[in-house]
């Protein structure tokens, strides 16, 4: 039977505030274990939490960027569930009155743009971290004991919950990528998945294609890589489909993605719903926002990736794909826009950035800040090609030296004596020489083998030491051969 997957994602985004959600402890990553804690985030008796105003501002930014309704009245709740990495044994989160709700995020798929609903984006405190000692790859199930690091406990995060609108692992990957780009653009998180700033849970079920009723879902927990999230979802879809084909049932449970074995594994069984025994957090006042406060944050939001992508298409004549790549990273988009000021061919600039430049940067593991040249020099190279001073083959040689030294393309061309030959008389002389030396190939062409034209072009380029204008070479060759 053919099955359709139904996927919903829960993304946990740590906010990059200087201090924790309810106390003044630092949020810097990588400090010695249990050195960024205090009586408040450890939940010691007699302590009182105080809301971090910057965390609320960042959470509202996220809501606005995801087209959510921003609640003018929301509250914090106690979620009573045993967290071994939260010493007070409950988490402060939001339940029935979240800060942001009923939003959406548009993603780009092979079929076009698709809208994914965002159920809610609520504020909560992060838990600490358990380090499992001994056993296989530090896994809980085979560890000898666990150590608790409470540094992360109390760091503010926003949990972004999507509607079950996603229908493939590719769509899930596109959603996660688009979401991460937005969070980086608005500056609320560093989104460093290796450090746990961005984590993802996926709820996955399958149903016979054409039916409306949802199947039994499983939850894949704590994935810290978009690549692994995609692989885990693909695996889970196949696993559940195989079970149904065999007449077996899917068990509702939480599962983990095992990177080493490339499969999901049972973490714990899960009933229809946990009884978290939520109740309003008695030590915190409700969050009441004025219209002016929300509007002031909205007014100061930067241009978001989707809007920037649309503008790049119309303003610079880029394809949707090119614009999508260039706006996928804010620093890259800014670098391109600065460069576009220095050339009349912004499409040519994007081609070099996405082609040779991106390849060399990846090969040498460099970032934009590591480049030895600024945008103006790359635009200089683009203009040299457009003016016919050098051809595309020569340009690649020039780019290598530009990348390695930062030297001006005009200076490189001058030093290497690379100026392209565009004099028709000079090219015609080279063409006649090549045709005379390759009479058999000329006969093949006249006999209908037009593919040999490329061979003859190459011979002319070789005869002119690669300096001839390829367009003129083609034109003159064809004129001579067809006469």
Segments where pLDDT lies below 50 for 5+ residues?
Answer: none
Q: Mean pLDDT score, rounded?
A: 92
Termini gap: 63 Å
Overall 3D geometry? elongated
Provide the structure class.
alpha+beta
Features:
single chain; elongated; alpha+beta; Arc Repressor Mutant, subunit A; 39% helix
Topology:
Layout: E1 3-14, H1 53-65, E2 69-70, E3 73-74, E4 77-79, E5 91-93, E6 100-109, E7 112-125, E8 129-133, E9 145-149, E10 156-162, H2 169-185, E11 198-208, E12 218-223, H3 226-245, E13 253-258, E14 263-269, E15 279-280, E16 287-288, H4 291-299, H5 305-316, H6 320-326, H7 330-340, H8 346-363, H9 375-386, H10 392-405, H11 409-416, H12 424-437, H13 439-446, H14 453-463, H15 470-482
Parallel strand pairs: 12-13
Antiparallel strand pairs: 1-10, 1-11, 2-6, 3-16, 4-5, 4-15, 6-7, 7-10, 8-9, 11-12, 13-14
Summarize the structure.
The chain is of the alpha+beta class. The chain is built from 15 helices and 16 strands.
Structural notes for this entry:
β6 (100-109) and β7 (112-125) form a beta hairpin. The protein has three domains: 3-296, no CATH class; 303-416, no CATH class; 424-482, Orthogonal Bundle (Arc Repressor Mutant, subunit A). The strands form four sheets. Strands 2-6-7-10-1-11-12-13-14 form a nine-stranded mixed sheet. A three-stranded antiparallel sheet has the order 5-4-15, with no helix packed on it. Helix content is 39%, strand content 20%. It is α+β, with helices and mostly antiparallel strands. It is built from 15 helices and 16 strands. The protein is elongated.
